[in-house]
Amino acid sequence: MNTALRHVWISVVALFILVFGALSYIQFFAAKDLSSNPLNTRQLYKNFDLARGAILVDGKPIAESVASDDQFDYQRTYADPKLYSHLTGFYSLTYGANMLEGVMDDELTGQSDSQFYNRMVNLLTGQQDEGASVELTIDPKLQKTAYDLIPDGQQGTIIVSEPKTGNILAMVSKPSYNTNLLAVHSGAKASANMAELLKTPGLSPNINPAIGHLIAPGSSFKILDLVAGLESGKYNLQDEYDNPESMLLPGTNTPLPNFVEGICSNKPRAKLSFIVGQSCNTPFVAMSQAVGQDALRDVTERFGFGQPLAIPLRVTPSEFPTDMSPDELGLASIGQFNVKATPLQMNMVAMGIANDGVIMKPNLIKQVTAPDLSVLSQPKPEEFSTATSKDVANDVTELMRSPLKGGTAYTANIPGLDIAAKTGTAQIGKTGKVNSWITGFAPADDPQVAVTIVIEKTDYATGHNLTSPNLKKILEAVFNK
Fold this sequence. Notes:
By secondary structure, this protein is an alpha+beta fold. The chain has helices spanning 2-36, 41-47, 81-88, 99-103, 105-109, 116-125, 140-149, 187-197, 209-212, 222-232, 272-277, 282-291, 293-302, 326-332, 343-354, 390-400, 460-479; strands at 55-57, 60-67, 74-78, 91-92, 96-97, 133-136, 156-161, 168-174, 240-242, 246-248, 255-257, 269-271, 309-310, 314-315, 358-360, 365-369, 375-377, 383-386, 420-427, 434-442, 449-458. It is built from 17 helices and 21 strands. A hairpin with a 2-residue loop joins strand 1 (55-57) and strand 2. Helix 10 (222-232) crosses helix 12 and helix 12 (282-291) crosses helix 14 (326-332). The termini are far apart. The relative contact order is 0.12.
């Protein structure tokens, strides 16, 4: 009898330990994963009854939770949604959360590690948890200016950043959309609204084009060629280099013309200042053969190609191809072939040259603030990489002044403001369409902002008129010119 009782007692204790262990695991280790699991509709519904923190720009909410008059306590609402949709993303009962609503979800729901003390206090006092507010680095006036410069119906992106800090002052893309349409509590209405939004050419509510579109950079990529060429010691600002009107791509019978819209043919031999100013192609193909693809790839990687990055939105890594034949390398050197870059990547190229060769990590978050207004976190400027030397950066800056002095970016010139920039036009197959770029910074001798503009899938004339002239308008807004 005693033996039987002992066995029962041991079994009960073992079961108690098993149950206690399972509960402890769920409570302390698996709770966060279970709560964030998209299949956990109970947690999702519960979150719609919580006071979710606001997303702020210049202290004003662009996303906030307000009292609801339906089955939930709160409704997520967005102010100026088209201006900020690609940054805030949406918080949807049907589609979940994306963009900042997704990546900052722990802070916005009060579940981040920095809010642990607040949760413990609320647990003891019986108060409801509240989310923290997330304030962005965005300048609202600059954001509006940039947004209005892209015509409705046109695919395009504009980014303005601070080279010395990495802070992003404006990041806009069109087409945009109204995030309120996906935040509705009716699943049927949200689905119908999503179906309607997806009819807009070039729009995906799940992609921020500034960090998610991989686009051929065209001649804006030549900035990286210059870094590789100057670092090699084979190129300098004093000598002249062959600048033929056309050439055969290395190892082929395929002719490559110089930039046909410029005056490259005026100088069969020229200094780099003329070559860069007029965006001549043939000297850069020759430069790619002289420095080699390994050296050029090394430069691209230092500037961020192929590197993981979160701002905190996850950035799609830009691409520079491997194992290229000589002709493919020649095309890659002018930003064609399989070279693909996000608009943010080319903005980082400008930031690196502007900041003496050092790229600061791009950042969207100014600070995270608790409901009691205490600051939970405040990101400090962080170095992303040393992309090149100060001397090389200074030489490239000097060369990037050339397009403003009667070159391809002359329409961006502002009297009294020293500007450095590089234009780019990437052919899109045989469609007759191009991607038009400009990336640069000002003042060139003490850079305060870096600006990148790309107009996608357009004709040359339209793209040309929406890049350099708009760079001028943005810089006029920044410097009150």
